[in-house]
Design goal:
The complex is a heterodimer of chains A (110) and B (113). Chain A has no helices and eleven strands. Chain A has strands spanning 2-5, 9-13, 18-26, 32-37, 44-49, 53-57, 60-65, 70-75, 84-91, 98-100, 104-109. Chain B has strands at 4-7, 10-13, 19-25, 32-38, 42-51, 54-57, 64-70, 73-78, 87-93, 103-104, 108-112. The chains are: A mainly beta (110), B mainly beta (113). The interface between A and B is medium-sized, with 23 and 26 residues.
Amino acid sequence: GQNIDQPTEMTATEGAIVQINCTYQTSGFNGLFWYQQHAGEAPTFLSYNVLDGLEEKGRFSSFLSRSKGYSYLLLKELQMKDSASYLCAVGDTGRRALTFGSGTRLQVQP
Amino acid sequence: DAGITQSPRHKVTETGTPVTLRCHQTENHRYMYWYRQDPGHGLRLIHYSYGVKDTDKGEVSDGYSVSRSKTEDFLLTLESATSSQTSVYFCAIGGTGENSPLHFGNGTRLTVT
């Protein structure tokens, strides 16, 4: 099975940097995914890591350490529109399904 | 948008009644999924399909059934709705590659009274 942990809530200031951590335990690993979900909307894909290291995509970066079962999402130059839930998910082989953590609700303050 | 339409978007039903939710895709993807999302639990997999007439259970499949008679349509049925099935239901489609991300429909908010 899969077990995924991430903080429930975080608060940060506009213009700052925030790091959202995710730890996982899995029996079959096929990539680590990050999604953004605004209230009342569908999750949207942000980033994907399958190998160790940092993947950068504009203001967002995601890091993976497979040996530690650890990932983080780094958001730079925070904007008010970044207030949302951020979902960490692990892919499994075979089903091609994702198992999600409970999500981290990020509130960006002026 | 990834070409996924869920219907209805909102539904209120009474305990004990059958309910069917529909997911329609225009992307011709082989893999389709039904998730439910509840506060404190995140997204949980109900059922998934890996082809026409090929379906399998997820982690929270009790009380739900699915059917896929065409590539583009994946139906989720609650045979006899219960209050514990009040939730937001998301359909998702898988990409063409093994490591492709899932893309989600806009969700169906179901309330069972």
